[in-house]
Write a structure and sequence with these properties.
Length: 275
Amino acid sequence: MGPFLRAQPGAVHPVVRALIQGGAGLPAAEAFDGFHALKAYEQAARRLWEQVDALLLPTAPAVFRISEVLAEPFALNAQLGLYTNFVNLLDMAALAVPAGWLESGVGFGVSLIGPAWSEATLLGLAEKIADPTAPPPLDLTGRAPAVKLAVVGAHLAGMPLHWQLTSRQARLVRAALTAPVYRLYAMAGSTPPKPALVHIGASGAAIEVEVYEMGLAEFGGFVAEVPPPLAIGTVSLEGGETVKGFVAEPRAIEGAEDISRFGGWRAYMAQGAGL
């Protein structure tokens, strides 16, 4: 994944990218310690299958709103995998089965888990426990008008100002690259550190961004909090799409460092800023 991430960082979801990049500094000795520990768990699991035919566990321990997961993607996704993370690691078979509906109308499911190659047994058990009731009716009410917003720096997922998006129920649409017509600068004396995205034309570069969607009223409140010399304008993305996004006044680059070579703010903070 290393060469791919360096060549096309915008093609990978930012949360997934952060997890994968975290492995870059893993010492070899620590990795082998992990392999040895995993083998010990595999031996314990083999002894378990001598006593039971299958495990029955909730598929997930809780249900979260999209806005909640966007606000805490690492912690909440880890919770969602509480009962399933071990399945692939220990080479087990698993089958998720619908098991009913919560009062809110959200589905609830259980997972049947067995040793490798036990799919036929699990399917037989699933037929006995699956909930045959129909789901609640879909909510077909129209969506409220929304605005797409490209963020490039301190508002990225995991960055200091990301809460200004999640508090407005902003939804991550995708990671993307701008059209190759911009330069990215690390502004001088900005707290928290922030970049300036400047349109310069043909001699520019493609810069990594995250595109979010939020309601019109929430977008208006967000724009009102953007401090100068930054502003909200129109940003051109790779492929020709245009969305609202952060732009900068000329004074933003006074004393600033051109960091376009990093391809984005996250890479600069991880490599260029030594974090």
